[in-house]
Specification:
By secondary structure, the chain is α/β, with parallel strands linked by helices. The protein contains eleven helices and nine strands. It is globular, with a radius of gyration of 20 Å.
């Protein structure tokens, strides 16, 4: 069972060799790895040229991470697909475990495992908060660690590629799209990957943009944004604009007001949960 690993990349030269090594060191599987680089201006291309064993790669201007992953999907041929960002790593033996599981469970289309948040030096500092599969719960929180997920190529043929209008939550939207269609997910309770977390990480560096995009995605896909995501957006916006305000009561009222605004903006109603949450915080 051939596995295709796709690595979107842009100016991650300080990490990418570790990513490449984590793939090339996987044993006991038929594996192809393609790096789709967006025309990096750092040392990425030099590393790709010199890396042994040779890895397939292209470096050219693209439309961003989502476009890069979709290019990789079109360029690879494996029956099983993994997507590993250029600052993340697989753990030893991860892919062989996944292949064995897929081989024994032909009815399962998506397998996602446990993972760690790792620091700049690859040290795990906390477990990624993964959970057992529950589609309704997935709407409330993204408990799937993207580098620890693998899926069958037939899903791309049935449900299409990543939504290239999304810049931050393209993976979350895809898992929701598949879950909504009734695709079978399984939680594999083995640690498979390390997801790097650091201050200038793409997601951490743009919390408001991330949450705004998630809310827009939910509105388009489901017609309504879950209350928890409305509150998360309000909290991120309050932190960005009122971070210097040390007054707890003021901050809580701002979050509550923004939650109400968000409810009206996306759901055209006032969320009772937003008000309840604000009151709960005030009692602390």
């Amino acid at each position: 069972m051939k596995v295709s690993v796709i690595t979107p990349s842009y100016n991650q030269g300080r990490f990418i060799e570790r990513t490449l090594n984590s793939v090339s060191s996987q044993v006991g599987v038929e594996l192809e790895h393609i790096v789709v680089d967006g025309g990096s201006s750092d040392q990425t291309v030099e590393i790709l040229k010199a890396f042994k064993p040779t890895v397939r790669w292209v470096s050219e201007r693209d439309k961003g991470q989502t476009d890069a992953v979709n290019k990789g999907l079109r360029a690879t041929t494996g029956e099983i697909i993994g997507w590993l960002n250029s600052d993340d790593v697989y753990y030893p033996g991860a892919i062989a475990k996944v292949v064995a599981f897929f081989d024994s469970n032909p009815e399962i289309d998506v397998v996602y495992g446990m993972a760690d948040h790792i620091d700049l030096e690859d040290r795990a500092f906390e477990p990624y908060p993964t959970e057992s599969w529950d589609f309704q719960r997935l709407k409330e929180t993204c408990f799937i660690c993207q580098p620890a997920l693998f899926f069958r190529r037939r899903l791309v043929e049935q449900y299409g590629y990543l939504d290239d209008t999304l810049n931050y939550c393209m993976d979350y939207e895809y898992w929701l799209r598949l879950g909504k269609a009734g695709v079978r997910f399984v939680y594999f309770e083995e640690k498979l990957a390390g997801s790097r977390m650091y201050p200038d990480n793409k997601t951490l560096g743009a919390k408001v943009k991330v949450h705004r995009e998630i809310n827009n995605m939910f509105k388009q896909s489901f017609g309504r944004v879950p209350d928890k995501w409305l509150f998360n957006y309000a909290h991120a916006l309050a932190e960005e604009r009122f971070a210097s305000d040390r007054n707890k009561v003021t901050f809580v009222f701002v979050v509550g007001a923004l939650s109400i605004f968000s409810s009206l903006k996306w759901n055209s109603t006032i969320s009772k949960n937003a008000i309840a949450t604000m009151c709960t915080w005030l009692k602390r």
